[in-house]
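Memo subject: From amino acid sequence to discrete backbone structure tokens
Keywords: amino acid chain, backbone geometry, structure tokens, three-dimensional fold.
Body of memo: The sequence and its backbone structure tokens, given next.
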Amino acid sequence: MQASQHTQSVVTMKPHHLPFLLIVLLFPLCLASEEEQSIIFTTLGRAFYSFDIYSLPIHHHQPPSPHDELRLTDGRSVNFNGQFLANNTAIQLPTDPPPPLQLVYVTERSGLPTIYYDAVYTTATTTTRRSALESFTTERIQLPLLPNHLGEAQVSIKDKPSVTSDGEYLVYVSTHEDPGVSRVSWAAVYSTHLKSGLTRRLTPHGVADFSPALSPSGVWTAVASYGSAGWSGEVEDLTTDIYIFLTRDGTNRVKVVEHGGWPCWVDDRTIYFHRRGDDKWWSIYRATLPADSADSVVVERVTPPGLHAFTPATSPGNHEFIAVATRRPGSSFRHIELFNLVNKEFRELTRFVSPRSHHLNPFISPDSSRVGYHKCRGESSNKSPQFLLENVQSPVPGLTLFRFTGSFPVFSPSGDQIAYVEMPGVYVVNRDGSNLRKVSDAMAFSTAWDRVRPGVIYTAIGETFAPESAGVDIVSIDVDRNTIKKLTVDGMNNAFPSPSPDGKWIVFRSGRTGHKNLYMMDAVGGEIKGLRRLTEGPWTDTMCNWSPDGEWIAFASDRHDPGSGSFELYLIHPNGTGLRKVIQSGSGGRTNHPYFSPDGKNLVFTSDYAGISAEPISNPHAYQPYGEIFTIGFDGSGLKRLTHNSYEDGTPAWAPKYMKPVNVERPKGGLYCSFEDCHWLNDFPNRMALGLPSCPYSIPLSKPQCGV
């Protein structure tokens, strides 16, 4: 099957282009206008992803120790998904001898994910890192390996990079092209010629490709792909298929494996990959491609049941072992292990170095001497600041974006304070990070400021994601007088309060009739002073927000398919008339948490409109790894994707004032690296039914590792 070719000409970024680049980047900032606006949102767990890439030697006879571990990246950025380059690869600094370690990887810095190349020199006492484009002067200059050349859509995911053995081409995932269809992933594989900057799309349009891997010769690329079937909404095992195609232009595309992900090559005919088997264990499989087109692909399971093994890594011509990430029963952490392909035994590595850290996505050096991976760099070696508000690169001129550390953040009407939720408790903090106050110890969700009475916020106290009968009530909190007043009385899942601009009413959702519908109550006295039903039906209307002019209420609803979990955005007048849909989220889609812009002309919301952007198992846990932030015009026009990542973005809110794209730091302290592994990896099939011991043995260790 032939793949269509789509080529884009781009400008190669070189150091002498830097002054012009700065002019181009800064020019929009000189065009200040009344239309400049800002949006804040939450990313699940992202504030704690202080990832660096590390490496361990493989051929030690003794278990590795912390002294053996080498940090390869800068200790400040969020660095992940690396790949070693061969020493004879053409991307080298003009030094003799060449650097012993060359690395290409994804890095998030200055609010934008990009791809870097680093050369790592080591001595007995020091490690020196130099970028591929670093000047050889006393001043250190780092530039990304992949120039930011994608025009208007300069914001996108960059993921899973690798370089051809001749150093000519960089192959990677990007999400910069909109397929124009709801719930279709934007993830596609591209190649960029590193000397000319010429970029070519290798993935056919209408198809989503993830996790590309180059064959040792560089002739072939393997990907995990949906093909043309599209995303079904699955967030655990994507049930992708493995395709291969010619790296030079994406042609000769052929499906070689049904149901598989995260491919890697050991030679040009042998691919390893992971899948969740019929017995529910994640395991590594091997596909042997035929030498003759008349033969079929041979697929066989490699790792045994009894533990989860995934994200395999190989090295050219190495048929002795592979590296994998594992989750063993009794452990809450994933670790990197080697699996001997000859004697079928595991050899643990990272558990000896940092037993209580997650280690993700291994990769092996071309000479099979080292294994790399990324993990949280640890509190003692963390050089990066922690942010209350982290500026994220925006694709829209004049609109700044900020990732906030906390859930349901919303600005006060003056724009000087932010109310938010951090389980458990409700907090208020000044926009500059000062005067942090905890105003409630209760388990709460959603926040809203009164637009007339200064210092009054509203929230819902009780269980989240609960049925209609759950005991959830709305309260008002006067943060200046330190008083709390309960506004609803029945405790039937009353939540998501939003006050009217004149301060007279609150719209909220309630399950008091057995279905979650919208109601309005007196903003001061609560429902005993005045209550009116706004919507009625056997479905869920929720997450409501009142427009600044008081004419409309936006909300999310599953009324098109009650109980399905699919939500779309609607508008209704406060008197119950004028109901209309704002956006069709696609079959089974989810669009949630609408919030009006200060001028009432647009809505910001969370959606899976762009599908999923990476294999979820390759990331820490995210309940909705498809969640991105979008805006849309009040009339349903001008849909725009704002964020690109494989995390869960949600609960956005428009700021009443424009904020300059400057990070706001917060004091370090509290929980650090407090994120969890994918929750569904906690589900271990019945080992006894398989005739296995209740706790797996780690080979060559002689004792079970449960509870470690």
